[in-house]
Amino acid sequence: MKKGFWTLRYTLINVTYFSAFCTIHACAAVYLLANGFSNTQVGILLAVANILSAVFQPVVAGIIDKQGFLTNRRFILISVLLILLGSILLLFTPANKIFIFVIYASIYMIQFVYQPVMIALSFEYQKAGCNIYFGLARGLGSASFAVTSAFIGGIIEKKGVSVLLLVNIVVMILSAIIVFTFKKPEHFTETAKDVFSSESKKLSKKPEQSAPFSHTATHNNFFDFIKTYPAFSMFLLGTICFYFAHNMINDFMIQIIRNLGGSETELGYANFLQAILELPVMALIAFVLKKFSSRTLLVFSGVAFFVKTLILTFASNMATMYLSQSFQLFAYAVFVPASAYYVSQTMGENDQVKGQAFVTSAITIGGVFSNLVCGVILDYKGIKPMLITGTFVCAVGVIISFIAMKKLPHYKNA
To answer: Is 161 helix (H, G, I), strand (E, B) or coil?
Structure first.
């Protein structure tokens, strides 16, 4: 089928995912604070959810990599239905804080767990002959996050936080229908596989460092995985540092904005700005990768994460806040597709879902430390000390990532 057809269908999966990501993740603190949680309690809930997702992501990936009953598509469908059920329970069931804690942490965790599976789904279908522009689809997913953000803040101020659950329910119903009908062609063609392999290698500046797609060894043992992919494994530490700062800003953005004189409406504008800027970069990433290697772009994105956090640390008004958010163009917008391509270029077929999962696990571990540390700092020390902490941690991540991507081998035969 035509590339546009498969890209459109995969785009719809991203659009529904990131629309719900806005209401579940970006507005988590808004929802929880409105239900009586303190900043520290919000941090603990998100930390628990992140810890669980970091544990389950590689486990699920290992099961999927064995190519049994649980496929990428089936796991996504199961996840969508569970999030739908959780949102319905939160909306229609009389609840106390313990009930909210358990259900909200569960849907937050589940959505993170299936994010790397959704990325792996794209590369799985590409190798089966389904032509998909991954960067464009992912960028339009960010655009859906942006559009949702632009409207949701003002609606929350007028209607209350229950509107977040209503959006989740509608979006998850649509997502379930889209994923259920997104079926891969039955016959895998070697020609399609060869074409995909050829195109992927063209994106690498040094293809000799990429793992050949014919490599079929599976490294389910974590230490074997580290030994086989040393640069990637060290880079995960840098990723943890980047996303300590990134999650600090996203999870406690409403408190940062209120400190600068804003409200939920400005929260929506800030999220819209950073998300809409992701679209052009992600849509054009395949062309950028012809000029720069994915590992160079990953280091570049780390520097952008640092600059974004540094600017916000010295922000005194909403204009500076928006300036900080605009660096999403070079940070998150570059990191996400570059890391996906890096995994597809350097890892064997049977390790690629795990590779995507480990990236997301590192992101969520960064979120764990951010939630536990920043919530407490915010309650006892305030906004400025929290932002300074995030800036320092991100700077450490830049150093680690430079060493990993520029000094270490990317693939070793075990």
So the answer is: coil
